[in-house]
Specification:
Blueprint lengths: L40 E2 L9 E3 L5 E4 L5 E3 L4 E3 L6 E8 L5 H9 L4 H6 L2 E3 L3 E5 L2 E12 L2 E11 L3 E10 L6 H9 L2 E3 L9 E2 L6 E4 L6 E5 L9 E6 L11 H10 L9 E7 L2 E9 L6 E9 L2 E9 L8 H9 L2 E2 L1
Parallel strand pairs: 1-12
Antiparallel strand pairs: 2-3, 3-12, 4-5, 5-6, 6-11, 7-9, 8-9, 9-10, 10-11, 13-21, 14-15, 15-16, 16-20, 17-18, 18-19, 19-20
Protein name: Beta-lactamase family protein
Keywords: Signal
Organism: Saccharothrix ecbatanensis
Length: 332
Amino acid sequence: MSSRTMLPVVALCGVVLLGGCAGQLTPTAGSSTSQSTSATTISADPVALGDFAAIPRTNILLRVPDGMTVDERLSGLGEPGTRNSIVVTTMPVNDQTPQEVMNEMATGFTGAKAAKQGLEMGEVRRLTIAGRPAIVASGVQRQSGQTYAKAIAVLAADDTVVLISGTAEEDGSLTADDLLAVLTSARWSAETAAGDLGFDLAPAAGYERKDAVGGAVLFTLGGESGADAPKLLAAPSLGQALVAEGERRSFAVTRFKGLPAKPSADSTAEVEIAGLPGFELTGAGSRGGETVYAAIVFTDDGYIVIAGDFDPATHPDQLPAFREMARSLVVS
């Protein structure tokens, strides 16, 4: 097994793969600010920041707990050999303000949406983190028979929303309060830290690269941002161990059916992309008749999923473009 952090991924709003999050939630009732941290905005070289480290591909600086290190693929911190992690995800807000999106996301911390992710969170509190309006909550997450300490913060930045999610093994070295202390002491850098995703794709004709969440690459047709725009997103597995050769087909089908559109696997073909084995799948989504595509490419420590969808009623066939982009994959 790889020594990388084995991260239990929690997509609170389905943001990791082809998911919109803001428009699917209900605005929370307003509440007063009950706590604040110092408003810290700095501009500094990521080197020599003392106890703080710049998080790759973000403007966030985090205090690094003992045993954890910066993980470029996570856009966060990880502790090798454990499931302890703190992941930073920067999300565009489209037509809403960052404050509106943050308020809507607050409802995903509790209730039915949270329960589906195994989250049992306490009170959602409003405060200031790194000089930005923020909300935080802490508690536990139950997943695959395991229980983890959990802390989540959402910051409303200038034109984005930043989600910081901390996860720690039960009865380990970090508690939910420890994670929350790291999140609430975050600082903001005027410079976005560099970071290597470990892979890249080239856009097909007519497609433009857009800001994507976490360690993902996102392309949309014409650079559109709407939910109906044809889009293709590529993201690595986070903590998924090597998938045995004999299990790859069934794994790919299961992963495909688990995409936000909940598609049927109408076709499955074995492929080789970037010199790596994989499977290419297509099907119809269960939400609104969209056509869904995915290539699941297996690496030595997990897989890369490349997934796209479009509405055939409003756009011509995008499968050739999706396949072209998938086959442009380069793994470093």
